[in-house]
Amino acid sequence: MREKILTYIEHNSRIDLADLAMMLGTDEATIMNELEAMENEHIICGYPTLINWDKASVEKVSALIEVRVTPQRGMGFDKVAERIYNYPEVDAVYLISGSYDFMVSIEGHTLREVADFVSAKLSPLDSVLSTQTNFVLKKYKDHGIIMAEKHVDEREKVSL
């Protein structure tokens, strides 16, 4: 049952518990108890809201920063990741495969703010060997939600 609950709330965390209980063939109290248990076990870590900031007319700059590091002896990548994710500017940190070790996601109000974070806080860390900053120019899809408006072909149809 847990997997089914997680699948439903992953796509709609605002789903009505009575509706969820009905879909799963159980009662609301069972759903509430399962959700509470999964929150306590940190299976459910939060209920974020996905916002299209372009539509909100709020200036935000998002960046994905690739970071190459030297893992610390006895701690591996975890200690370095902890130092990075403790910065309040950092939204997400992922250990990745490939040429870099981490993918760090941050948001700022300006390109300069993001660049200053990278040059003043991230790059100088002892374990950091190199960084590469990629600015997000447009979000088409985020967390499974299509953010871009559908393109409408406004050309006139011609028949011969």
TrEMBL record:
Keywords: DNA-binding
Protein species of origin: Pseudobutyrivibrio ruminis
UniProt name for this protein: DNA-binding transcriptional regulator, Lrp family
Matching PANTHER family: LEUCINE-RESPONSIVE REGULATORY PROTEIN (PTHR30154), TRANSCRIPTIONAL REGULATOR AZLB (PTHR30154:SF34)
Residue stretches making up the Transcription regulator AsnC/Lrp ligand binding domain: 65-138
InterPro entries according to UniProt: Dimeric_a/b-barrel, Tscrpt_reg_AsnC-like, Tscrpt_reg_AsnC/Lrp_C, WH-like_DNA-bd_sf, WH_DNA-bd_sf
GO (cellular component) term, any one: cytosol
Residue stretches spanning the membrane: none
Gene Ontology terms, MF aspect: sequence-specific DNA binding
Gene Ontology terms describing biological process: response to amino acid
Coiled coil: none
